[in-house]
Design brief:
Blueprint lengths: L4 E9 L10 E5 L5 E6 L5 E8 L1 E8 L6 E8 L4 E6 L19 E4 L2 E5 L11 H6 L4 E4 L4 E4 L2 E2 L1 E5 L2 E2 L4 H9 L6 E7 L13 E7 L4 E2 L3 E10 L3 E13 L2 E13 L2 E11 L2 E29 L2 E24 L5 E25 L2 E23 L9 E24 L2 E22 L13 E19 L4 E18 L3 E20 L5 E11 L3 H4 L3 E5 L2 E4 L7 E11 L4 E21 L4 E26 L2 E15 L7 E17 L3 E10 L2 E3 L2 E3 L2 E13 L2 E8 L7 E7 L4 E8 L4 E11 L3 E2 L12
């Protein structure tokens, strides 16, 4: 006899008839073995897949509510449990750690979720270091590389909001952002059409802790001290409270980091029909200080209407002395001293309205204002140099204000039992100004090395609309179909007279995914999505940072957007996740790529468009629960990349590569926890650059001092092997370049964390963060 399987549906609400989000719903058999586990979505809905006729035990729970258990519940394919309610828990929590025990990593189809509170890496580390530990994520600050499961060019958002910064600048901000302020991180491989189309590799969405609250106050405090090649100090504070229908919270994070870095650039080439060599070593001693503060307000006007407001401030000062020693054609060494001061001041404000106009329908409207101000100064002093620059100091002063306004309106509704749709519109309006003064300190008549004097102005507007539908064709089959359209107008003018570009273009971004449930835990997935990678404002600015007089890093005013078509198939189960992806990109943007001028003998590292990038990746993930106290997450990604420039040089490169990640999390008696993180990146291809093998082993040990406090020791890159060694060979000028970067990665930190909460916990996150990435 053929056994029939199907879906079982239900809706979860609180006493105010509002949906309860992220509640755990478990379906168990007679022996109480859990067969299916899901979470409620933004409308409080939950669906069990591939359920056969029989009797079950249903358990629904979430922190702050009384759990609900149904025993001997008869279900069959197509059963609808209707609307179910949970009551707030009557338990008053006094100085109790209210953190729910969740898995460190959760796999939800094509989405990976890191529950930061379950990771010891959140204690003492910054957000950049935390992201580096996520399986399948490659994050390289020096080369400005972000890969998700082997695919280049991801988008990083905070609470579902774009920052609109370049990847290098965003990485700098993440280094000044404490991981203690984060609730979880979502890695979305195949974003749907209601999310921004930017980011080829997918979206990394950082969700801050301020999205949930208490019916009484909560206070948290953290202090970190560390040492690597210099001292590090960090301070975190957060406070939250409720006053009737108003919830408010304040978070502060401050960091001080005294560090040291080194790099070298060695090249050989032909210049004026002779062999030329230039070897440069740079010793950098930066000190940076950062302060960030966030204020969140949330007010319930009625059970169906809520207004959220937030304001974030970030300030970062980077001050560095770099001694660059270089030797040309094996002559005596010369020196260039670079004193750099880089300041970022950011203000981000927003207001969002959520209206539940029906039991299965919600309307969201938001307005965001982003203001960035960057001031960057370089003082270059030349010593022992037989050129007109000898004994001079070249000053480059750059000021870059950026202002962005973002408006969005979205709707989510259930049209019928098996059909759920989302549609909406969005507009972003940006202004960017780049003002540069370039001169010699004591000789205004002397022509500077780069002659960057000028003013650049960029105006960019992006309008978007989307429609996406989720349709349950049958009890086993689910189909998602969506279409997004984005129209961009972008114009950049120099000195109010010269137009660099004036672009107007529109693109359609379809997204299709198919899911088939063999059983409750075994699913097949196939999908297609089109993505775009736009150059950021800072990428387009014509700045220059010198390594030596003949080597510099610069922007590129002639970058164009890149378009990618991504195809994927995969299989997921409780113990194994497999995926095969193919990506075909045109005009892929790669940072810090080699460029050489045969006439001037100048070598530069700059973002460029690569005509065609094809990538095939295969990923295998094994979430293993060895024991209740021991959790292992192993991830391996194989990738094959084919790069073609398509220019006059017509360079073609290809490379096979493998990335391994292993996370171990162990809990011991007496409040001890231990965590190790290991990754190994085999030789890989980054644009036109070949990178050698590098790896990292980090560990954390935590002791729970009391129910409200803990002490954590963290050691990053214990063996000091996270070193990047790059090589380039270009036919122009017979150029061969070897580059090495050693950041301060081996760091030891000790952090103390204390939290205090009074009252019942109430879920205020009625709209999921993923739905806000639009």
């Amino acid at each position: 006899m053929k056994i029939s399987y199907g879906q079982v549906h239900g809706i979860l609400r609180d006493s105010s008839d509002l949906p309860i989000v992220y509640a755990n719903c478990e379906l168990a058999n007679d022996s109480l073995k859990v067969l299916n586990k899901v979470q409620t979505d933004s409308l409080g809905r939950f669906t069990f897949q591939a359920v056969k006729k029989g009797f079950y035990t249903l358990k629904i729970s979430i922190i702050g509510y009384e759990p609900m258990i149904y025993r001997q519940l008869y279900l069959e394919p197509g059963s609808d449990l209707g609307i179910m309610s949970l009551k707030l828990s009557s338990l008053i929590l006094k100085e109790v750690d209210i953190q729910g025990k969740r898995e460190l990593l959760e796999y939800d189809g094509r989405k990976l979720i890191l529950n930061v509170d379950q990771s010891l890496a959140s204690s003492g580390n910054n957000t950049f270091e935390l992201l580096q530990r996520i399986p399948g994520v490659t994050l390289d600050k020096q080369g400005s590389v972000l890969k998700i499961n082997g695919k280049e060019g991801g988008l990083i958002t905070v609470n579902g909001r774009q920052t609109y910064l370049s990847l290098p600048d965003l990485m700098n901000i993440l280094q000044g952002m404490s991981a203690n302020t984060i609730s979880k991180v979502e890695v979305i491989s195949d974003p749907s059409s209601d999310m921004d189309a930017s980011g080829n590799g997918g979206i990394i969405n950082i969700i801050l802790k301020d999205r949930s609250g208490f019916d009484k106050k909560k206070i948290g405090f953290g202090l970190t001290s560390g040492y690597g090649l210099g001292a590090k100090v960090g301070l975190d504070f957060n406070y939250g409270n409720n006053f009737k229908k108003l919830y408010y919270s304040f978070t502060y994070s401050g960091n001080y980091n005294n560090t040291r870095e080194s790099m070298y650039v060695n090249r050989d080439n032909r210049f004026e029909n002779t062999d030329f060599s230039l070897n440069t070593f740079s010793l950098r001693e930066p000190v940076f200080k950062s302060h960030s503060a966030t204020l969140v307000l949330s007010y319930d006007f009625s059970p169906k209407l809520r207004v959220n407001a937030n304001a974030q401030y970030f300030n970062r000062l980077w001050e560095m002395d770099a001694t660059n020693s270089y030797t040309a054609n094996h002559s005596s060494p010369s020196q260039m001293i670079d004193h750099e001061r880089d300041r970022w001041s950011n203000i981000l404000t927003g207001i969002e309205t959520n209206y539940q106009y029906a039991k299965q329908g919600a309307l969201t409207a938001s307005v965001d204002f982003l203001s960035y101000r960057n001031k960057n100064d370089h003082d270059y002093s030349f010593k022992d140099l037989d050129t007109p620059y000898s004994g001079e100091t070249n000053i480059i002063d750059k000021q870059t204000p950026i202002k962005i306004v973002v408006l969005s309106l979205g709707n989510s509704s259930q049209l019928s039992k098996g059909l759920h749709i989302k549609f909406g519109v969005k507009g972003s309006f940006s202004t960017f100004n780049n003002n540069v003064l370039d001169y010699f300190q004591d000789n205004s008549d002397q022509t500077s090395i780069a002659n960057l004097n000028g003013k650049d102005a960029l105006r960019e507007n992006i309008f978007a609309s989307y429609l996406t539908s989720e349709y349950e064709i049958s009890k086993r089959i689910k189909l998602n179909v969506g279409l997004r359209y984005e129209h961009t107008s972008s114009k950049m003018v120099r000195n109010d007279t010269t137009t660099y570009f004036d672009n107007r273009y529109g693109n359609f971004f379809p997204a299709i995914s198919f899911d088939y449930a063999f059983t409750t835990e075994n699913h097949f997935h196939a999908g297609y999505v089109r993505r775009i990678q736009r150059p950021s404002f800072v990428d387009l600015a014509p700045f220059v940072s010198f390594i030596d007089p003949l080597t510099y890093v610069s922007g590129n005013s002639f970058l164009v957007p890149a378009i990618f078509d991504n195809f994927s198939i995969g299989f997921s189960s409780k113990i194994l996740n497999l995926s095969l992806d193919y990506s075909n990109g045109k005009n892929n943007i790669n940072y810090f790529q080699p460029q050489f001028n045969e006439q001037t003998n100048v070598f530069s590292l700059t973002p460029i468009n690569i005509n065609n990038l094809k990538t095939v990746t295969f990923t295998a993930s094994l979430p293993i629960k060895v024991e209740n106290w021991w959790e292992v997450n192993a991830n391996s990604t194989y990738s094959y990349s084919l790069v073609k420039t398509g220019d006059s040089e017509n360079i073609s490169l290809n490379k096979n590569s493998v990335l391994f990640n292993i996370l171990n999390s162990l809990s011991f008696p007496a409040g001890f926890r231990f965590e190790t993180s290991f990754f190994l990146q085999m030789p890989s291809l980054i644009g036109l650059t070949k990178r050698q093998t590098y790896w990292d082993l980090s560990l954390s040990l935590q002791k729970k001092i009391s129910k409200s406090s803990s002490l954590t020791f963290t050691a990053n890159d214990i063996f000091n092997k996270n070193i990047w060694l790059d090589r380039n060979r270009l036919p122009i000028g017979d150029l061969t370049v070897f580059r090495g970067y050693k950041m301060e990665t081996r760091i030891f930190r000790l952090s103390y964390k204390w939290s205090f909460g009074l009252g019942k916990i109430i879920d205020r996150n009625h709209v999921s963060e993923e739905n806000r990435v639009n």
